Amino acid sequence: MAVESRFVVIRHGVEAKTFMDKKSADDYDKMLDMADNLADVFANSSIELSETVSEELSIYLAQHRDEVLVALLAKKPPQKTPTKKAAKKPVEKEAEKASAK
Question: Do residues 32 and 12 touch, judged by C-beta distance below 8 A?
């Protein structure tokens, strides 16, 4: 007999999602907390949104929080690291120029 541990995220008395590891369940629960907070912000604003749109928008923004923080200038964008191919190309071009002379 196999024994499995499962982590269930329960929101407002309803099972939202089940995970096999605690970290994923905690991350999902945190995302839902952020979405709830965003929905409260929308509810307190002068913008009229339907409940469905407010919920969808708040979940979307919570799922993409890193991009939102960058857009709000609260976080620096991630630095792009050059790939090996990109790093080789300038060297290859210089070598071609040198051999052409």
Answer: no
